[in-house]
Write a structure and sequence with these properties.
By secondary structure, this protein is an alpha/beta fold. The protein folds into 3 domains: 216 residues, Rossmann fold (3-Layer(aba) Sandwich); 97 residues, Tyrosyl-Transfer RNA Synthetase (Orthogonal Bundle), CATH 1.10.240; 79 residues, Structural Genomics Hypothetical 15.5 Kd Protein In mrcA-pckA Intergenic Region, Chain A.
């Protein structure tokens, strides 16, 4: 077998492990079954999920069987990890709808053919669980004192920890036990904020099933080099669904990563060979633009498909480079009557979605970041009318990274 653990380390996936030597031995000696969990609390996964997804995909490509566990049961109560507020309670219908959407996204990265990979929903064993039997058979293995020592719960106690959320660690541990019994799953992977939950699952299996083979492996929680949480922008999370984050904006997010992050992200978020990525390590300053374009294209291709990635690249070049494919730029339409009568620049930038309020446009103007057809706007009272319309429409720019093409329709 391929030295999977070494490959994961070289790519930056390794944070901590229950028993590294044993895990290395397991991965080298045979094809194992592993899993990662995803709670369907939204219609889409976001960039925070991409590291465990890529970790799963790498392991599967190296010959190991993947289980994508969708939490149709656990999503009904919520995981307190890293949150100060209780999660919104969703209906069964909402959870099941989200599950279908998430499955479609996971299948872009993983082969879920019931052989090399399986999609499993923990609703199978959690929604109809017998609470008394669960307490008797599972609850007895958990120490409340130890649970309260975990950083997850200590932090949550500052704001209030409900009994509902307190149960989550038992349920996630029970998931691992069920997957071990049903599918011979011996490894759980996930973000490092899940360490306490994952460790408890390993310990539960060792107590109940007397198995010493089970392990867990966590990946680093990815922060950008300037200390920001990966996948977060001024507008919020970057989603894998084009309905929540446009393909253009998704592509632009990767183009605009800092120079210090681009090589690290090529290793984490693409399947490019490490030898190929090493070539980009020699690039500096403006030369790194090439590496950023490769990163943006490769990740967008994985999430949205090659055709969409090509269009996003064309749009980016038209908006910020020397490209001429203006049709690929983010576009909004307004009626000819609006332009004929004239529309204030504040209203137009809000209508185009480049700013959320007129106040934000005013600040943009004051900071010299507001442009129409590449001409700086210095007066908030400017009226945009027919003279601004070019053969390519009206090109609006908000700062250096945001652009929108306005098309005038009859």
């Amino acid at each position: 077998m391929t030295d999977a653990l070494r490959e994961l380390k070289l790519r930056g996936f390794f944070q901590q492990c229950t028993d590294e030597n044993n895990l290395e031995k397991l991965l080298k000696s045979k094809s194992i079954t592993f899993y990662a969990g995803f709670d369907p609390t939204n219609i889409s996964l976001h960039l925070g999920h991409l590291v465990p997804i890529m970790g799963m995909a790498h392991l599967q490509r190296m010959g190991h069987r993947a289980i994508a566990l969708v939490g149709g049961g656990t999503a009904m109560i919520g995981d307190p990890t890293g949150k100060t507020e209780a999660r919104k309670i969703l209906s069964v219908e909402e959870i099941d709808n989200n599950t279908e959407k998430i499955k479609e996204q996971l299948e872009k990265f993983l082969k879920l053919d019931n052989k090399e990979g399986i999609l499993v929903n923990n609703a199978e064993w959690l929604r109809n669980i017998n609470y008394i039997e669960f307490l008797r058979d599972i609850g007895k293995h958990f120490s409340v004192n130890r649970m309260l020592s975990f950083e997850t719960y200590k932090e949550k106690m500052k704001y209030g920890l409900s009994f509902l959320e307190f149960n989550y660690i038992l349920l996630q541990s029970y998931d691992f036990l069920q997957l071990f019994k049903r599918y011979d799953c011996v490894l759980q992977i996930g973000g490092d904020d899940q360490w306490a939950n994952m460790l408890s699952g390993v310990e539960l299996i060792r107590r109940v099933e007397k198995s010493t083979e089970v392990e867990c492996l966590t990946f680093p929680l990815i922060l950008t080099s300037d200390g920001k949480k990966m996948g977060k922008t001024e507008k919020g999370a970057i989603f894998l669904s084009k309905e929540l984050t446009t393909v253009f904006d998704f592509y632009q997010y990767w183009i605009n990563v800092t120079d210090d992050d681009v090589i690290r992200f090529l290793k984490l978020y693409t399947f490019l060979p490490l030898e190929e990525i090493a070539k980009y390590e020699k690039l500096k300053y403006e030369e790194l633009r090439e590496a950023k374009e490769v990163l943006a294209f490769e990740v967008t291709k994985l999430v949205h498909g090659e055709e969409a990635a090509i269009e996003a690249r064309k749009g980016a070049k038209a908006a910020f480079g020397k490209g001429e494919d203006f049709d690929a730029m983010p576009t909004v339409e307004i009626s000819k009557d609006i332009i004929k009568n004239g529309i204030g620049v504040l209203d137009l930038f809000v209508k185009a979605g480049l700013c959320e309020s007129k106040g934000e446009v005013r600040r943009l103007i004051q900071q010299n970041g507001c442009k129409v057809n590449d001409k700086k706007i210095n007066d908030e009272k400017v009226i945009i009318e027919e003279s601004y319309v070019t053969e390519n429409g009206i090109i609006l720019r908000s700062g250096k990274k945001k652009v929108c093409r306005v098309i005038v329709k009859n």
